[in-house]
Amino acid sequence: MASPGKVYLIGAGPGAQDLITLRGARLLAQADVVLYDALVTPEMLQLCPQAEKVLAGKRSGQRSLAQQIINEMLVDYAHKAQLVVRLKGGDPMMFGRADEELRALEAAGIDVEIVPGITTALAAAAATRQPLTKRGIARSVAFFTSSTAPEHSDHDAIPETDTLVQYMGGREAIATAERLLAHGHAPDKPVVVIENVSRADQRIHRMTIADLTQGLGTPQGPVLVMIGEAMRPRPQQHVDTAISNTIAAQLRA
Amino acid sequence: MASPGKVYLIGAGPGAQDLITLRGARLLAQADVVLYDALVTPEMLQLCPQAEKVLAGKRSGQRSLAQQIINEMLVDYAHKAQLVVRLKGGDPMMFGRADEELRALEAAGIDVEIVPGITTALAAAAATRQPLTKRGIARSVAFFTSSTAPEHSDHDAIPETDTLVQYMGGREAIATAERLLAHGHAPDKPVVVIENVSRADQRIHRMTIADLTQGLGTPQGPVLVMIGEAMRPRPQQHVDTAISNTIAAQLRA
């Protein structure tokens, strides 16, 4: 029996086709099989016309494959093909379930290499022109997500850093805002919410923590919530979206 | 007088030539001028053979330009050239002094666009195969740096997240380790130190917080310190560097 292939865990970045790395694009163009998650955009899959493309994705609120099934698919494909790509939105090593997939592949003796991707927070910082760190203002940044699992329901998920970035924060917005206020953050502290960053339907909303307590409705795409003094626009910054006080209505529109 | 050019603030990523984005590489190939910082590698500059290349860098312990001078250079070049790239190691929006440069360019009425880069922490997670988040183990990550400036000397710079990543942490290692212990982190909590990530001279050192109290000597390249349970190797993980208990000696060698 032939020796198994190699699996590359590749970060696709936020969605725009040209925000993947050169290394990621080269491997996609050589892949026999690409197992992609639900956050990977159709334009990204145009980089691997030769490959067998398989949706192996998890996404809240939609029908999705259990992680265990995805792990088994990865091992199975590695036994059938030489170059297997596991393509994930953002970066695989932050909020990407890489641990589970690495364990499964290592247990099966399959060689794995990881190619980093642009994580959503940095694409959002670029798109909104708001640096996450600022001299004298913000020297630390935390990336977090909230879990709605019962075992975490009393977990206080607000880190104590100068800038805060919540991944997948759309549905949790009210709870996040209330926890921020309970932690003593000022109601007028600036917040930037970005939906579908880097894509054609990207939307940027500027508000405050007080506004965030009104919630964000039911956004259609992935939502990132950035909080902190570093989110305050600069005096001569061109802010290319309307400053919105009726956020929920806008996001529902 | 001709209208000024456009400035692109581009993240070069950690150093390997193929870890820049497709967008970044395309703009480099079109640039008239590239102002690069001290962390940009020579192989990255091979992507812009046509451009005038100008070192405009700051690096601790070496002769470097003041930020004010760099800001003025950016504005000056934008008045002389159509496509100016400001190329920075890692990502420009995290620990990249983007705020100062954006303010200067905006004050001069110059159009700016930002292209994100792979930040060092995510390249390090990929190179060491240690995800920064793990289900049930690590749901939050902080990126921070310590300042040795007097006004920060009593600032407690250890965020309260599951995983901690200290940028430019080489010289601060002993102070960081002592602060971690004072915060109640266990002495045997795993630490991964990575020097020159993604480059030919990349070095990975696995240790504990107790080891870190011995310091890291005087590393030659940029050093990232990653701390937390997420840094513990998996049972069947192939750890491709020796586990070192004589770290300072190794880094000095």
From TrEMBL, chains A, B:
Domain Tetrapyrrole methylase: 6-212
UniProt keyword Methyltransferase present: yes
A Pfam family the protein falls into: TP_methylase
Gene3D superfamilies, sorted: Cobalt-precorrin-4 Transmethylase, Domain 1, Methyltransferase, Cobalt-precorrin-4 Transmethylase, Domain 2
GO MF, one annotated term: uroporphyrin-III C-methyltransferase activity
GO biological process, one term: siroheme biosynthetic process
UniProtKB keywords: Methyltransferase, Porphyrin biosynthesis, S-adenosyl-L-methionine, Transferase
PANTHER family for this protein: S-ADENOSYL-L-METHIONINE-DEPENDENT UROPORPHYRINOGEN III METHYLTRANSFERASE, CHLOROPLASTIC, SIROHEME SYNTHASE-RELATED
Protein family per UniProt: Belongs to the precorrin methyltransferase family.
Protein's name in the database: uroporphyrinogen-III C-methyltransferase
Source organism per UniProt: Duganella lactea
